Each structure stands twice: as C-alpha cells, then as structure tokens.
Amino acid sequence: MSSYRFLAGCYDRFTYDVDYAAWAGYIEKHFRKRPLPGNTVLDLACGTGSLTRELALRGYEMIGVDRSPEMLAQAAEKNRGIAPVEPIFLCQSMERLDLYGTIDACVCCLDSVNYVTDPKKLQKAFGRVHLFLMPGGLFLFDVIAPARLEGLDGQVFLDETEDAYCVWRAEFSRRSRICSYFMDIFRLDGSTGQWDRGEELHRERAYSIPELTAMLEKAGFRDVRTYGELKMRPPGTGEQRIFFAARKDA
User: Fold this and answer.
1) Does domain 10-144+208-247 have CATH number 3.20.20.60?
2) What secondary structure does DSSP assign to 234-247, as a single string?
3) Which of 18, 79, 160, 175 is such that its CA lies 20 to 30 A from the CA of 54?
C-alpha cells in the first residue's frame, strides 16, 4: 500500500472543509510581521496545490514540491494559467530538495512534517530548506500535537461524497511514536459507472516542540517561535495543531 497513489484522485473531495483562503491569510500575517527579502515562496509537500494556488493568486511566485507524482498532476492542472505568475512544480522528497535558485520563504502545511517519520530525514529536510532560503527568509510549518496523535489510537473514521468513500482506522505506537492510518478507498469511475477500490497506508510521527526546535537550530535557523493553530500567539494548553516559524540569519 503506498500513500496517495489512489487517494490523489479524490483527495480534494475529502478535504473540502479545509479553508485554504484562511490558511493563506494566516501565512501572509507572518510574512507581514517581518518582511521577506523577496517574493518567491516554496510550498513544500504541496499536495494537490490548493494552498499553492491561493498564494499565487495573491501575487507570490510559487514553487510547489511534492514526492507524489499523482498529487502533482492534480496540482499542475489546478494551477494552470494562474496569473500573475503560474506556479512551477517539482517531484522531490523533502530531504532531497534541490531547487534551481533561492527562495524567500518556505511553507509546509497541513502536518506534512509529521509525515516524515524518520527524524534523520527530517533533519536533512530542514537543512535543505535552510540552504535554499535567502538570508532573512522565513520557514513556516505546522505539526499535529503529540497528544492529538496519541488520542487517535483505535479510532475509526468515515469520509463520504457522492462519488468517493473512505473508511480508515488509526493505530498509535507509543514505542515508535508513529500513528498509522489504514485506509480503504472506493472511487466512482465516471466513464464506466463502476466503483474502483484502493488501499493506502499513511503514517505520521509525533514530534515535540523541544525536539523540532533543536532540529531547526541544528539546521542553522534562529529566532524559532511557536504559535497556536492559525493564531499569532503561543500555543495554549490542549492545542491540537502547533505552528513553527524560523528565520535564516540576515
């Protein structure tokens, strides 16, 4: 079972409730808090490019990177003809990020960092982001709080639309700190009227604030700050999603 090969075709239908405009607005608050050195933004683990599109429409020169060719195919189609500058997309894993030039900011949203379950690979990914950031550039990402991931253990979820159906169960291992999602997905083929079935396994690792802060600092970032979910204040007790903002020295 591989992540997103089958899910890509119906991912947007299952995530219809994600307010990408609100996410883009929140990102811009951070951009305005301390102005960026330029206008080029990397959307790391961009998925189907919904957030990429929102930021491109706001005038940023966007680069989308994802390791799933199926998700990138959706992203490229969604962003075709976007003005003023159409985004470009690259198929790469985070730890092997290799850009053609520098960037002024990097965003990595919707707990994509949790999907890097090997801490050594995540450390490499942070180093690659730091390498390509311009001095004074911002790295902004979010993670699911460890307590939230642990609380998913044993739960079963159902997502359903008119032409797609997904049932998934979660298992959390306290030893590995990894939450595994076992998914059964059914997708209606409009050309045949038949339902296709796919299975996928998704895994997320619980990372603590001190652990991620240390990794960012080791990669060369300074002024590492944490925030509550879509908030411009520190995370509160019971926060389910935590944002990190880190700067590269000017």
Assistant:
1) no
2) ---TT-SEEEEEEE
3) 160
